Amino acid sequence: MNADEALQVLDNILLPKKLSPIQRLVFRESWLGQTYDEIARNSTYGCDYIKEIGSQLWQDLSQILGNKVTKKNLHLVLNQYQQIGKNNQPLSSPKHDYSCYETLEDKYFPVPETELEFPSGPVPLNSPFYINRPPIEELAYHELTKPGSVIRIKAPTKMGKSSLLNRIIAYGEKVGYRTASLDFQEADDNVFASLEQFLRWFCINISRQLHFKPMLDDYWDEDIGSKVSCTFYFEGYLLKQLDSPLVLALNEVNQVFSYPNIARDFLPLLRLWYERAKQVQVFQKLRLVVAHSTEIYVPLHLNQSPFNVGLPIKLPELTLEQVEELAQRHGLDWQKANQARQLMTMVGGHPYLIRIALYYLCRGEVTLEQLLQEAPTQTGIFSDYLRHHLVTLREEPAVMSAFQVVVNAQGSVCLEPLLAYKLSSMGLVHLEGDKCTPSCELYRLYFSSQNLLTAELEIGNSDSY
To answer: How far from each other are the two terminal CA atoms of the chain, in whole angstroms?
Structure first.
């Protein structure tokens, strides 16, 4: 019995009561063998609180089942319960990854029978090819209901940040919240000419998405500065008019990092609004969701940064079971064979690389054997993606040299901390303590080629970027 099946057994035991998101998190991770310390480190909760939740949950189960339930005997007790069942029938496997929050796609966005879609951009809301990564979605939806909350989504490129962000926005809409979203990749260069220009663009965009007439001149005062004016505009005009919470989703915030003079004022402003929600009731309506691709390199004091408050979400790679599920949704029967494991040996659990592979396999354009053989070459299906990383590496020679050491090593290696962190932020290495290894065999094979790392790259000849 896997964790999802165990949760369904638990739901049947506790009916009509439902577990809270934090209870589901503690149960799932306990089922997977995580200690309370490990659960706390991988979540936003303190270890003592996690222990308290777990202890109360085992007590409740013990009372209901009439047998003592502990963290150590979970598997034994629930497997026995499943075999017996309330009607002497085994419980069926769950359809969804978790039941506390119904899957948005199933409930709100019925999946149409469409042609196979090429993986490009965020996964559409009604697509069958979005795979939930419990307990991430569940935690995010729950966090969104908290007054003045902040959700921070961070992951390397093409790991699914925008897809998750869109689902959080959709969840907000379905529970009656107002929503506005900005993708900073869409901003023209002149928007970043000055902090005032940027903040006015920011306010006008949000006003129009809320169908409010922009009234900046009524609140903007150069004598008090653009940051205070922006705050007054949000507090006295936008939020004051709303009779429900506002989900403000900011995507690709890393674009702002390229303009340090703006980042050093704008990012602390977001932190200020989070802090004001503790004192000013109208700011409790604001629910910030921030997504960015790389760690912030703009020097900020800890008490000014919006990246150390709220709920942090670091998107993990897909598991073997999730890859098998995704293959099944593509019409491939891989659950009883070894194909999913073979593909993951090459590309790991990277969602984009997995979907690219499944797209071509489903179309019959290549066999799995051919795909794996050609994967790390210039003619393989991942060549554009790999060249993009190569371009990025060549822009920072020190980082490229450090990565060359990693891919050429027989085992793991220690790097200077900042270089290791940059490579990890790009998704190119796995960090275990101070040790670095390539994130997947694809990267090791491709980048270990001396020809690729030393030859001049004709960037201008590529139209992939």
So the answer is: 45
